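Figure S7 source data.
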Amino acid sequence: MAIERTFSIIKPDATARNLTGAVNAIIEKAGLKIVAQKRILMTRAQAETFYAVHKARPFFGELVDFMISGPVVVQVLEGEGAILKYRDVMGATDPSKAADGTIRKAHAKSIGENSVHGSDATETAAIEIAQFFAGNEIVG
Ligand code: ADP
Ligand code: MG
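Tokens for the predicted magnesium ion complex:
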């Protein structure tokens, strides 16, 4: 399998509980390498652009409000099959359905406040990485 890069966000519910290191430990234990990382406060415009695909969903307003409610840690993760691997490491969107050992099973509070984001496909990974990182900020 090819070496890929995926985009990750440690969401405000996790940063609020000081879980950045705990999440990163799970990521690294799974064999994914954090090749870029920064802690930011997203603007409303950034969050709306990032989640534009969900604009018509009933939870969109709540999701944007949540994503700008506190600091997030945006990351680029690299590894073999990184996109699907990170989706596995994250666990299901709804933490009550997430498998043991996943980030969301261990840490998520609810289907909305679910601790992490990970890209779902090659194309979205590239778009999401480019929204937050310049090429020279990613060092593999
Ligand atoms: P994932 O983050 O697993 O890819 P989605 O892309 O379906 O999940 O949804 C994006 C984010 O929107 C979720 O991670 C979660 O924060 C929020 N969300 C999804 N479904 C709901 C819901 N039913 N109620 C509230 N928030 C939701
Ligand atoms: Mg998604």
